[in-house]
Design goal:
7 helices, two-stranded antiparallel ribbon, eight-stranded parallel barrel
Length: 262
């Protein structure tokens, strides 16, 4: 199986950025996702700007081994839909290499006119070839991703293909953490990842199913809700123990190895 990333989303102020750096330096296939939604900054799952700054400092010292993905929600998605890249432009300097656009209602986005944003979004993505943009693929976001697939012009890909720096995350649950009943194979025109209800309890079975579906293509999996816990009297904590359970599963399945010192 070609697993390009094991994604853990929702890293926040409940954990030390240095702990994330230690994990990434030991397991460079791990990718930590940070949710950006200004109206919820500082709440569980939504890191503060100060914490993101400390994470960026750790990423700069990692010699490229730290994989970080910015998951945009709420007004940050609205900016992208309007073609405003002021915030997106800051992400590479903070160590983020991938940007996921969560254009769904559960993520605080008005999805009633996604089709009108296709050209603006395509132009924004074309201005940032240094970033990989991830679109959620489900029926709610279809006006956006289908428009990017079928658009014409210098900012779009060939017919039936996404622009080179755009991929999709298959998440039929639309960000609600419901396990999918099946995992579709990657299409010819673009690469995909898988999400929805994945966690420590089922990650082995999911990886087996995804391996069969992926047809030897590079894919990734991502999870969020299953990684939360109550710890030391604190609610809704990003649980690194649960993250490590998933890492152990990947290594025990022979997809990757533990570092030599273990």
């Amino acid at each position: 199986m070609k697993l390009r990333a094991l994604g853990f989303c929702g890293a926040d102020d409940s954990v030390s950025p240095l702990h994330l750096a230690v994990i990434c330096n030991s397991y460079p296939f791990v990718e930590f996702g940070v949710l950006f939604r200004p109206d919820r900054e500082g709440q569980p799952r939504y890191a503060t700007a100060d914490w993101v700054g400390r994470l960026a400092a750790a990423a700069r010292k990692s010699d490229g081994r730290m994989k970080l993905a910015a998951h945009l929600c709420g007004s940050r998605v609205k900016e992208v839909l309007d073609g405003d890249d002021a915030f997106v432009s800051t992400l590479p300097g903070l160590g983020f290499k991938r940007v996921q656009i969560n254009a769904t209602a559960v993520n605080g986005v008005d999805t009633s006119s996604l089709a009108t944003s296709i050209s603006a979004v395509a132009a924004l993505m074309a201005r940032h070839p240094e970033l990989e943009f991830i679109l959620q693929k489900n029926d709610e976001t279809e006006p956006l991703w289908s428009g990017l697939l079928n658009g014409e012009g210098v900012c779009f890909g060939d017919a039936g293909r996404l622009p080179r720096n755009v991929t999709m995350l298959v998440d039929d649950s639309k960000g609600t953490g419901v396990l999918a009943s099946s995992w579709p194979p990657p299409p010819e025109g673009y690469n995909i990842g898988y999400a929805g209800g994945i966690g420590p309890a089922n990650v082995r079975n999911v990886l087996k199913d995804v391996s069969n579906a992926s047809r030897d293509r590079d894919v990734w999996i991502d999870m969020e809700s299953s990684l939360r816990s109550i710890k030391d009297g604190r609610d809704d904590v990003f649980d690194l123990d649960k993250c490590f359970q998933c890492i152990e599963a990947v290594c025990e399945m022979g997809i990757y190895d533990h570092p030599d010192f273990l």
